[in-house]
């Protein structure tokens, strides 16, 4: 059996983008969490998948709402990622500019792109739940920016990764 610390270190060799997944609770209050387990799944129909820890307090709300928004963070949004990564924070949206998308989901401003999705399927995946979503609306920023990247346990910029591999 592979030790979880060894597994995490090996998987950290794969650079990922950083997202904030948002939804709303039954009262319409915004909720969100940072996630880097995200990928585009299908072009036709447009689908994405996210992976959420089974112990996440946001997971039941995502399932109950039946919809979520994937906000792809820009390199200047590390503080946004850190704020949404806090467990048990009472208001993760404090000071974060956002608007309500066409599905009524929080769309964080300044992201490279945001995709509102309707949840189509949930699959068990070890200690995570895999949530498949059909893309319904896309919001893109006009600003030229690079993605926020997570690599070897740290936030990075593409320029740093280019220098490291040269």
From TrEMBL:
Keywords, sorted A to Z: Oxidoreductase
Gene3D superfamilies: Electron Transport, Fmn-binding Protein, Chain A
Keyword NAD: no
Record-linked InterPro entries: Flavin_Rdtase-like_dom, NADH-dep_flavin_reductase, Split_barrel_FMN-bd
Annotated Flavin reductase like domain residues: 11-157
GO MF annotations, alphabetized: FMN binding; riboflavin reductase (NADPH) activity
Protein name in UniProt: Oxidoreductase
Species: Paenibacillus montaniterrae
